[in-house]
Amino acid sequence: MADLRVIVDGISLEANWTGDAPETRDALEGALPVAGEAVRWGDELYFDVPVDVPAENAREAVPEGAIAYWPPGNKLCLFWGPTPASVDDEPRAASPVTVVARVTDTDPLEAVDGGARVGIERFP
């Protein structure tokens, strides 16, 4: 059973929390639902969230489908493929991010063209 529903321009995806960053997860979970107009950077979308926590187990290279918090900008990021910072085909952030969850299937994101409206909520 999924923990989260991620909606990207009407595309509904399921995601699960990771155990990598419990303090960041708690802060984000307390702010749910969150949504915003996202900016696209390669195969990454990011948008503002009302969360302000320090980096926790942060890293630049992330797994495909990672939902990560970027502390310097208070942004939530969704990665599904390479970005301009990538080495080969790995998803990579511009600077370290805190991974909090992971989308189970990123294939539908291939249809996203440009920026998108992104929302994240608890799975019913």
TrEMBL record:
Entry coiled-coil feature ranges: none
Stretches assigned to the Cyclophilin TM1367-like domain: 4-120
Entry-linked Pfam families: Cyclophil_like
Domain of life, source organism: Archaea
Alphabetized SUPFAM superfamilies for the sequence: Cyclophilin-like (SSF50891)
UniProt xrefs under Gene3D superfamilies: 2.40.100.20
UniProt protein name: Cyclophilin TM1367-like domain-containing protein
Provenance organism: Natrarchaeobius chitinivorans
